[in-house]
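Progress note, project year one: complex with zinc ion.
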Amino acid sequence: MLLNKKTIAILILIAAAFLITNRWHFNFFKEQTVQRVNDKNTNPTSKELQIYFLDVGQGDAILIKTPMGKQILLDGGEGQTVLEKLGQYLPLTDKTIELVILSHPHGDHLGGLIDVLERYQVEEVWLTGVVHTSSGYLEFLNLINSKKITAKNIFACGENKPTGCSDEIAVENNMKFKVLWPRENLTGQRVKEINNISMVLKLIYGNNSWLLPGDLDSAAEEKLIRDSPEYLMANVLKVAHHGSSSATSEEWLKLVSPTDAIISVGKDNDYGHPSLRILNRLKRAGINIWRTDELGDTLTESDGITINITSP
Ligand SMILES: [Zn+2]
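Model obtained:
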């Protein structure tokens, strides 16, 4: 009995010591947490990755500001609107754009990029390398040459893995592009349907992803559905070809299964974009729709776990 009391007393002492030690640990870690939160409070509204779907009228222009401070511009719309937007969202003193990506050389994606190459120090350009003889595209290629900008022809590996293909390209820690389309090296090649060789990228940051299919039409969309269904799922879909009925099939939406869709489109455009059929399809699937012609610029912000969408 006496021994039992002694044992109990010792056990109580051990328990007390354990509690004190643990409490110290608890406080120590709490302190660390508070420190981190305070650091973040220096910029409380900013999440780490910011992707702006810029309202450039009829066209696409997507500005990506990475957590490490890189600036990437995917397409530039037509005309000079993109310059105004960059002036609005980039610091005045920052004239460097680390990467410009051209999905395909149609004017509503390419036009504004010519001014961007002229006004900004662009460090690298990604394109498909397809042959296109518009004066704008030739000017774009000449500028890349004369300014000695690093240009890379980007195409996906797919099953055949052609020489020089890319599967994934890391931008920085925790952030990468999955290259989905085209699946062949188009350098020096002419194609009938330029829309269908749009570069299709999936941007992945932590657990979040954005599918960016340029102006892809149904022929290429069907090939991706057939051959790469496992890579299409994304939180946010930039709807292909400004919401044209020539893409965004039921099956495509089922595989991508986004919570939010962004339609980059000009008010009262000549093409009737976005198509009512596609709008209804998105609504039936319960997907939130963000249209640049109605809401203006649309910003998606992510900390790698959740995405916030607003029209700034
Ligand atoms: Zn377009």
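The chain has two domains: 1-44, 46-310.
The two ends are 74 Å apart (CA to CA).
No further modelling is planned for this target in the current period.
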